[in-house]
Amino acid sequence: MAIGRSPLSLAAAGAAALLFTATAPSSAVSHGTGAQNLGDPDYGVCRGTDARCYHDWGNFDPADGYRLLVYSRTGGPRHAHLGTPLGPGLNPPLNDDNVAVKAVLKLGQENGFAVDYTEDVTQLNSAGRLLSYNAVMFLSTTRDTLDDSAQTALRQYVRAGGGFIGVHNAFGTEYNWPWYEGLLGNANFYDHGPNQPGTVVTTSRRDASTQGLPQRWAFTDEWYNLVPYPTRVKVLAKVDESSLARGVRGSLGHPGHGDEHPVSWCHYYDGGKAWLTTLGHDVKTWTDEPIEGDQNFLRHLTGGVKSVLGMAPFCR
């Protein structure tokens, strides 16, 4: 069920004038042949790279520690890195093939943040419950994974200063919900070319998610093509399309984005913070089995998570 576009919500805080004037322009303005952006949709909220779009309402106290909720429910095709569907409730038993969730649990253990996980939509149907987490991660969710109550709770949570992290097929989720599309940075998955090696270009090395990364690093992924194309975001990394030996053309004919093909970005949205990456397809990325670039990806993801949680500066 889609929720309509939200009304302006910042007037009481004296920031209504900021809604459409303070957001920074996109750091990526070229959209590639056949993928021109013919107008930036108005999601009716304050969004962009200006921190004044954030609602610092005191809902998250560092003294309480840092907590992440991982949500990986699928309402359509299921990525192999998710493995067997999880049982109901919070933190159900994991199977050997639930490698992506296990990897995030390990990142939390190694970096000082607590991780809960679920594929039970009832665990997301209360904004009050979500506010016990500094951030919510959608990990390769697919199609319609939220009911009306969970949609409302997620929106209220973000408006209260909550954090959102979208990984890989989070872009193939809740397609017909405009507010969620805006949360992704005005972006959606359209199609992808072959799963293949390529070169990731780190476009900003000031952000917590890119510090220490090489300027260029090899990685294997599906290299998502996006419609619409992200706007008013800070692009953190992109793929060098010339490094894709099997081409970038997608299964539905998308020709790619040329020199500006983003794979990770961040922005403020409707009072909250969002860090997004289309990367993370290959199962080996999430396991101890080596694949070129996997440690750079996990370092990138960890920095992004920590920045949204509040453990590091956000979107620099």
UniProtKB/TrEMBL annotation:
Q: So which domain of life are we looking at?
A: Bacteria
Which keywords annotate this record? Signal
Q: What is this protein called?
A: ThuA-like domain-containing protein
- State the Pfam families in the record: ThuA
Q: Which residues form the signal peptide?
A: 1-28
ThuA-like domain: which residues?
Answer: 98-306
Q: Does the keyword Glycoprotein apply?
A: no
Question: What PANTHER family does its record include?
Answer: GALACTOSE-BINDING DOMAIN-LIKE SUPERFAMILY PROTEIN, SECRETED GLYCOSYL HYDROLASE
Q: Does the keyword Chaperone apply?
A: no
- Tell me which InterPro entries the record gives: Class_I_gatase-like, ThuA-like
